[in-house]
């Protein structure tokens, strides 16, 4: 059997695949030690499958340890070694305002304070060493530093890593060392330095967590876990522990990969709405779109990642009144403890889940996945207090909460589509996560989209995606080729070097090679990534780049000089094939009252996937609930439910 476990802000999801069976389970997340919730979810899944831990051959894990540490600032005590004169790179940044018209918004404080910044007496240029490393002086400077982790980022270290390697040797084995040429071998000093600092700050925490999880796994009879990386590939736990920055988007990556597999040939916007946040990604031609870097919690990460936009709108997002008297939702969340008021665990603030319960989309007589009983009276008290503050009726306030949350998610979809030159009306909306199918049709209506896809295992699709993910290494090298240097032979040499390294790390000489190239016109500050062959024709690369440039920016310049900035190579083993979602034959249950656009109506309630149904209706799947509003219809398909707007 194959096991995937994904840790979310509210629930920890487990998925087991054995032959053509898919078994899923949920357990409450345990923020103090995520490994406790992981083992609880695994035990629940094994019990449902009537299986034992020894039946599991492979265990893949997606987590939020690194993300949470970065968001909360609870990271390891970190020092930085940088070339003399460049030790303040992380703090100086790009000198760009986070928000153009809000002058009061600042950057997050640097992870490494001035007293832990160490100047390395050395200097390299693009063609090699200009000043040899003064090892004796560096030893003295390292001796007085109190830190548990060390980031090393020297000028041109991505091209000439000899000095970085020597600094790591001088630091010794008593401290974790992250070097920039191993973490993010790309140009642009600030981004490379910031990424290396984050890597050093997270790796000790991640190592301790994975050691605890490995110990619990051994005690339970499970295999050692593999870890989902931010780029959508899977690595062994030792690799992940050495490079904590590679796992910052571990959780969202699993959902994006699972959504891409479920979308099949369809181009889709993927909406993963959990208890704390909503992650939006785009799948085109069967593959989730990626990016070569982004900011997380205001910190630059120059790493291969799935291209995900996150907003603080989940089932546990708290509704509140802003100083102007408007109803707002999120980004603060009730989380797993105490959770929404309707969970009956001490939560008193109104959340999106409380609103959905009052609107009739959820049923207090039907426990949520994980055995959570819903208390309608507690939800009414929490929403009622906010309604009184806003001067609204109870159910108007509940409907407003659901609509505001939906608007936040629709805005996130626009960021990933309209702002990238993509028309969302030409795509399907693939809604998953515990709360995604509740809001999928409403969000699609706001964006004038006509199709919503809901996988049968939508509530645990991130865990399913972990099993479906390929074992992979994502390798990069900045080359800065232009003019005569930009030749098929020169590019192929870099691709072959990176491919050989990736195959060696995977111990897989036959692994698939997928190159991609970051290109730009001369004089541009940023690049666009295009896919190409192992030995690409420069003319073909140019044609593909200009097609993408035209799509993104609305123009192309055939007379401008072209530059190849970075070569990216994904070295991957074949991914696991997923069985079709096990669809329980729908049982037509009782009807109940639900509220749509200010009117209460009777809705049919189905348990399982119906062959077809016209809205208004509610479909209760094993780990999620699908709302089919008036004007929408739904029918079963190979992976779950397909909603169409009439």
Please, what is the oligomeric state? single chain
Content of β-strand: 25-35%
Total helical elements = 16
Uncertain segments are none
Question: How would you explain this protein's 3D organization?
Answer:
There is one protein chain. 31% of the residues lie in helices and 29% in strands. The longest helix is centred in the first third of the chain and has 32 residues, at 189-220. Among the domains are: 71-206; 473-572, 2-Layer Sandwich (Dna Ligase, domain 1), CATH 3.30.1490. The chain has 646 residues and is of the alpha+beta class. Helix 10 (352-358) packs across helix 12 (394-416), helix 11 (376-390) packs across helix 12 (394-416) and helix 12 (394-416) crosses helix 13. Strands 13, 14, 15, 20, 23, 24, 31, 34 and 35 form a nine-stranded mixed sheet that branches. Strands 3-2-1-4-11-12 form a six-stranded mixed sheet, sandwiched between helices.
What's this, in brief?
With 646 residues, the protein is α+β, with helices and mostly antiparallel strands.
Layout: helices, strands, pairs:
Elements: E1 2-7, E2 11-18, E3 21-28, H1 34-49, E4 58-62, H2 65-72, E5 78-83, H3 89-92, E6 117-120, E7 123-125, E8 128-131, H4 135-143, E9 149-153, H5 162-171, E10 176-179, H6 180-183, H7 189-220, E11 226-228, E12 234-236, H8 237-242, H9 250-263, E13 268-273, E14 278-284, E15 287-288, E16 290-291, E17 294-296, E18 299-301, E19 305-306, E20 309-311, E21 317-321, E22 327-333, H10 352-358, H11 376-390, H12 394-416, E23 428-432, H13 436-446, E24 451-455, H14 461-468, E25 472-482, H15 488-506, E26 512-521, E27 528-531, H16 538-553, E28 562-572, E29 587-596, E30 599-607, E31 612-614, E32 617-620, E33 625-628, E34 632-636, E35 640-645
Parallel strand pairs: 1-4, 4-11, 5-6, 5-9, 9-10, 13-23, 23-24, 30-32
Antiparallel strand pairs: 1-2, 2-3, 7-8, 11-12, 13-14, 14-15, 14-20, 16-19, 17-18, 21-22, 24-35, 25-28, 26-27, 26-28, 29-30, 31-34, 32-33, 34-35
């Amino acid at each position: 059997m194959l096991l995937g476990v994904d840790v979310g802000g509210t629930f920890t999801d487990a998925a087991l695949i054995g032959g053509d069976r898919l078994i899923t389970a949920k357990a409450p997340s345990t923020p103090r030690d995520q490994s406790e919730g992981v083992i609880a979810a695994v035990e629940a899944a094994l019990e449902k499958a009537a299986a034992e831990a020894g039946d599991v051959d492979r265990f893949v894990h997606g987590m939020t340890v690194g993300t949470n540490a970065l968001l909360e600032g609870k990271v390891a005590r970190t020092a930085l070694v940088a070339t003399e004169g460049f030790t303040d790179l992380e703090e100086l940044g790009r000198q760009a305002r986070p928000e153009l018209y809000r002058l009061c918004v600042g950057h997050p404080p640097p992870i490494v304070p001035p007293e832990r910044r160490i100047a390395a007496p050395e200097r390299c240029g693009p063609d090699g060493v200009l000043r040899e490393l003064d090892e004796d002086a560096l030893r003295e400077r390292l001796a007085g530093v109190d830190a548990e982790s060390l980031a090393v980022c020297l000028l041109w270290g991505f091209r000439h890593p000899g000095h970085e390697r020597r600094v790591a040797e001088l630091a010794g084995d008593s401290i974790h060392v992250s070097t920039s040429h191993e973490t993010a071998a790309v140009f642009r000093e600030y981004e490379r330095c910031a990424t290396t600092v984050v890597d050093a700050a997270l790796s000790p925490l991640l190592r301790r967590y994975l050691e605890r999880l490995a110990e619990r796994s051994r005690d339970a009879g499970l295999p050692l876990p593999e870890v989902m990386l931010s780029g959508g590939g899977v690595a062994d736990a030792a690799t992940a522990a050495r490079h904590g920055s590679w796992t910052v988007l571990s959780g969202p990556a699993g959902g994006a990969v699972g959504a891409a597999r479920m979308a099949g040939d369809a181009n889709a916007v993927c909406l993963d709405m959990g208890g704390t946040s909503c992650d939006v990604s785009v799948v085109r031609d069967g593959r989730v779109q990626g990016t070569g870097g982004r900011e997380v919690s205001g910190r630059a990460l120059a790493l291969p990642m799935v291209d995900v936009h996150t907003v603080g709108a989940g089932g546990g997002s708290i509704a509140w009144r802003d100083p102007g008297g408007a109803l707002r939702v999120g980004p603060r969340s009730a989380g797993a403890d105490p959770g929404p008021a309707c969970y009956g665990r001490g939560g008193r603030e109104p959340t999106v889940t409380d609103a959905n319960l009052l609107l009739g989309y959820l049923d207090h007589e039907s426990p949520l996945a994980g055995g959570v009983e819903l208390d309608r009276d507690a939800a009414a008290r929490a929403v009622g207090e906010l309604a009184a503050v806003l001067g609204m009726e109870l159910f108007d306030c509940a409907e407003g909460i659901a609509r505001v949350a939906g608007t936040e998610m629709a805005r996130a979809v626009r960021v990933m589509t309209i702002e990238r030159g993509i028309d969302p009306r030409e795509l399907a909306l693939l809604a998953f996560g515990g709360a995604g199918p509740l809001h999928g049709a409403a969000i699609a209506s706001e964006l004038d989209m006509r199709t919503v896809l809901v996988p049968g295992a939508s509530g645990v699709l991130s865990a399913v995606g972990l099993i479906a993910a390929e074992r992979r290494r994502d390798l990069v090298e900045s080359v800065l080729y232009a003019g005569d240097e930009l030749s098929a032979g020169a590019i192929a040499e870099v691709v072959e070097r990176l491919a050989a390294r990736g195959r060696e790390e995977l111990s897989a000489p036959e692994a698939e090679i997928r190159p991609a190239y970051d290109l730009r016109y001369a004089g541009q500050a940023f690049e666009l990534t295009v896919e190409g062959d192992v030995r690409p024709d420069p003319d073909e690369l140019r044609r593909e780049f200009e097609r993408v440039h035209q799509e993104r920016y609305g123009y192309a310049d055939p007379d401008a000089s072209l530059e190849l900035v970075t070569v990216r190579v994904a070295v991957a083993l074949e991914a696991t094939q997923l069985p079709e979602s096990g669809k329980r034959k729908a049982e037509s249950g009782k009807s109940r009252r639900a509220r749509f656009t200010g009117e209460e109506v009777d809705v049919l309630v189905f348990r399982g996937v119906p062959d077809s149904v016209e809205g208004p209706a509610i479909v209760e799947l094993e780990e999620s609930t699908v709302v089919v509003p008036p004007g929408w219809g739904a029918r079963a398909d190979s992976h779950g439910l397909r909603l169409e707007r009439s």
